[in-house]
Design a protein that fits this description.
Elements (H helix, E strand, L loop, with lengths): L8 H24 L1 H8 L3 H9 L5 H15 L1 H19 L2 H8 L1 H33 L4 H8 L2 H13 L8 H6 L2 H13 L14 H7 L3 H31 L3 H18 L3 H30 L3 H15 L2 H12 L4 H39 L1 H7 L5 E3 L2 E4 L4 H8 L1 H15 L8 H13 L3 H23 L1 H19 L15
Antiparallel strand pairs: 1-2
Helix pairs in contact: 1-7, 1-9, 1-11, 3-7, 4-5, 4-7, 4-18, 5-7, 5-11, 6-7, 7-8, 7-17, 7-18, 8-15, 8-17, 9-14, 13-14, 13-17, 13-18, 13-23, 13-24, 14-16, 15-16, 15-17, 15-23, 15-24, 17-18, 18-19, 18-23, 20-21
Length: 509
Amino acid sequence: MSEDGNINARRLLIAGFLALVAAGIGFAVRGGLLVTWSGKYGFTFTELGQITGGGLLGFGIVILLTGLIIDAVGYKKLLLIAFVCHVISAVMLFFATPVFNSAGKDATYQILFWSSFIFAVGNGICEGVINPLISDLYPKQKTHYLNLLHAGWPGGLVLGGLIALFIGKGVAWEILLALYLVPAVIYGYYALVEKFPKTAAQSGTISYGGMFKNCLVPFFIFLVIVHAMVGYVELGTDSWIAKITGSILDSEAKGVMLFIYASTLMFVLRFFAGPIVHRISSLGLLLISAVLGALGLLLIGSSSGAFMMILAVTVYSLGKTFLWPTMLGVVGERFPASATLAMSILGFAGMTSAGLLGGPGIGYKQDRFASEALSEKAPETYERVKADGENGFLFFKPITGLNGQKVAAVLDYEKAIGTDKKIAQENGTWDSDQFKQLRELDSWWDENKAFQEADATPVAEAGLVGSRSAIKVTALIPATMAVCFLLMILGFKAKGGYKQVELDEEPAA
């Protein structure tokens, strides 16, 4: 542990940990508020999706930009800027209802969207700061302390899930969501009063240009590619896992509970990375994690029943727990002087992959397998619920998937159309352009509701096929990662074994 002057490494570690706790709480509680916002302000599900999307918009870009300026601005100022973003985001929440009462739904939408966006900016700055900061503070145990640091994220998800249980129980939603300010205020206090170390560039250990040159070596580029796969598996899959497990168990609530269980498991396990790395090295831990991740996804796609699904999710959680922070640990161990930039590039690759490849890719796979299954088993049903146009993903063939709104209407009319329609009629906005698409869907329902009984079963079964098949195919990603990690281990073994590079040993390019 570094003790540079009056620097208190333990307090700065706590500050970083609590920043991730705040991010996790805000993310989880916001997800639990969607139904409340729909009923209170009359938002459609499309609008709710846009609001929650604001919580992820540009996350990876913010991490990268932080890495580009961190050596000029410093750890302390950037972490304080992140805290200000978190406070502004929370304050904006308390204007939502007054704005709705005075200016209506559209203005409220803007309040909630920009609150979510500013929250994401704060999260991105935190991620860009705390990774190289902890790497600097604990130069001898980087992987262990980065895993401990990142236990804050699943810890926040668990707390956020528990807080969300109080939604609709008499506590104002604004207070429930703003509870992320509790850990935020603590990390903000530490950021204000504590002394921070200088970055390697600020202390003269390496030049700014030298960091860029060091990040152009083949091994680092290989790590970036592998971390893009990590982002695909961990964050991309996480965005779908509750929905997929819930559809397999035929219970959305069970899917959410499994997600909370997986997050709890990750929180606990990340405290034990140090002893594992001490025995098998960082690359050994990554290899085992990738193998377990692939096995866990295969089990999720093949399991039936609550017990087997719990077992499958457990194996998957064991696999994904150590991937992200341990990859950051490898970068810190091999590129200590370039860590501020290198870790930001890695974070950018992981987050961008999750947003552009993971989420859309797993969605495409579900569409493809579900539509193929339905068109083969019940072609008439498929013709009634298929989408209007084709969707593609990368170089894969375009497919005509299932129209999500029509599928939702067949399975539950009230949830898909009825609730929004009732709210809009009560507000006098049902005939406005805003609800044109929903009115068209309602007209479709009037023409096809006679087929609901015949369509419901094959549609539900096709959705299940899509979920299972998509998650099984996704297992190829961690399987590929396992091959990559094995190649790294063999490559280092040929050169005498994997070892950490000391700060004064890294060339200034």
